[in-house]
C-alpha cells in the first residue's frame, strides 16, 4: 500500500502550499484589484502581488534568525502590505484599515491548480496528506475549505513553531505525524524547499509550477537536486507513487 | 449563515473526541481483546478499558501541574498500559513489547457514534469544525481517516501545548483559529470540559453520551451548567444551530 524507498515506507505526504498547491499570484492579484482598485487608480494587480510576495522571505527571516519571536504569517503579510504601499509611495492612511485587513485576506482566498483536487483525492487513499506550509493554520483552513481540499490535518510553520526552510519545521512535522523523517515525503515546486527537507531526512518530490510567477518565470522550471520523485503535476505524482507501491508490495 | 449569540457569531465548532465523537470503551476493549487476549486468559476487555481510562486524568495532571513537561498522549497511554498491567499483577515482560505497542494503537482505532458523520457533514457546511481533544495529532488523524470524519483541521492539546481543562488549551485553540473565544463553540459530552471552555470565554454545547461508560454510567447523563446548546446527538446539534442561524440571519 505504501511507497517503499530503501528500508522504510513513506506514510505521509506533506505539501508546500504557495505555488505548489495554490496559484497565489492570480489569487492575490484578484483580491488586490477588488479591495484596493478604487484607492490605487494606477494599480497593476500582478505587479502588486509580486511586490507583496517579495517581502515574504525577508519578513520570515527575522523570525528564522531569532531577531523576533515567532508570529503567524497573517501578521507578517499585513505588515508587508504596509511595506509595499510605502514602496509605492502610497500613504496608507488614505485607505481605511478595514480595507487593508480585507486585502490581507486575499491570501486566504487562493485557488488550487486544476490538477490538485483530483490528485490529492487519489493520494489520500494511500497516504496521510497535509500541508507543510509557512501559512498559518487559519489561512490554510480557509484555502482548503473554499476548494474542499481533502487534507487529513493542517500542519506547517505555526504547528512547528518554525518557518521553512528551518530544519525544525520539517523535523517537528514528522514528529507530530509520529513518523521518522524518511517516512515523510515533502512535495514542492521549489528546489530550495526540497533541499532543506532532504537535509532534514525527508523524502522529496518535485512538481514544477512554471506559471507560478507568471509568463516570465525563470526559477524552479526544472529539478536541480536528486529528488526521489519528479512529476509534471499531482496526477503524475499519484501515478508514480502508485507504481512504486506495486513494485514493493 | 452563522449562529449569533449576543454580539458575535460562532464561526468554529471544536469537539471533545473521547466519548463525545468516538466510543473509546468499545474500541479499546476490542483492541485489547485482539492484542492481549492470548496473554491474559482471564481478561475482561471492558474492565481493562475502564482501568486504562482511569489512569488518563492522573497522567495528564502531571503535565498540567508542571511536574513534567508536555508529552503527547500516545506516550501517556503507553505508560498507563504498564500501570494497568502492574495493577493486575501481570509481569509486562511476559508480553512482547511490540504487542504492547500494538495494543496502545487501540486508541487510534476508535469508531464514531452513529450520528457523528452525518451530523458533522451538515455542520461543516456552515462552520469550521475541528477536534479540541487531548489526543495527539496522529491519533486524531488515524481515528478520522478510518471513518472519514470531515475535520477542517486537527487541533487540541498537542497544537496548544496544554491539556484540557487547562485554560490555555481553549484560548490557544481560538487563537490558532484566528477567532475570539466567543466565536468558538466547544461541543462535549462532559460537563467539566464545558465548564472550563465557558470560563475561557468559549460558547458551549452539551451532547449526552449515556453509553460512554457502558450500561452502568452515572456521570454526565444530563447538563449541569448553563450551556448555550443542549442536544441529544449531532443531528440535534445541527438542527439547533441551523435554526439559530435562521433567526439571526
Number of domains of chain A: 2
Output the CATH topology of the largest domain in chain A: Rossmann fold
Give the end-to-end Cα distance of chain A, rounded to a whole number of Å: 7 Å
* Major sheet attributes of chain A: 6 strands, parallel
Count every beta strand of chain A, where a strand is a DSSP E run of 2 or more residues: 8
**Largest contact between protein chains?**
A-B, 19 and 20 residues
* Global shape of chain A: globular
Roughly what fraction of the amino acids of chain A lie in strands? 5-15%
Secondary-structure class of chain A: alpha/beta
Low-confidence stretches of chain A: none
CATH superfamily of the largest domain in chain A: HAD superfamily/HAD-like
Helix % of chain A is 40-55%
The H-and-E topology of chain A, N to C, reads as: EEEHHHHHHEHEHHEHEEH
Whole-angstrom Rg of chain A: 18 Å
| Architecture per CATH nomenclature, i.e. the level-2 architecture of the largest domain in chain A | 3-Layer(aba) Sandwich
Care to describe what's here?
Chains A, B: This is Haloacid dehalogenase type II. Chains A, B: Keywords: Hydrolase. Chains A, B: InterPro entries: 2-HAD, HAD-like_sf, HAD-SF_hydro_IA, HAD_sf, S-2-haloacid_dehalogenase. Chains A, B: Pfam families: Hydrolase. 2 copies of one chain form a homodimer. The first copy, chain A, is of the alpha/beta class. Chain A has 2 domains: 3-23 and 111-248, Rossmann fold; 24-108, Putative phosphatase, domain 2 (DNA polymerase, domain 1), CATH 1.10.150.240. In chain A, 45% of the residues lie in helices and 12% in strands. Chain A is built from 11 helices and 8 strands. In chain A, the strands form 2 sheets. Chain A has a 6-stranded parallel beta sheet, sandwiched between helices. In chain A, helix 1 (24-36) packs across helix 2 (45-54) and helix 6 (116-123) packs parallel to helix 11. The longest helix of chain A has 15 residues, at 73-87. Chain A is globular and about 60 Å long. The N and C termini of chain A lie close together (7 Å). The mean pLDDT of chain A is 95.
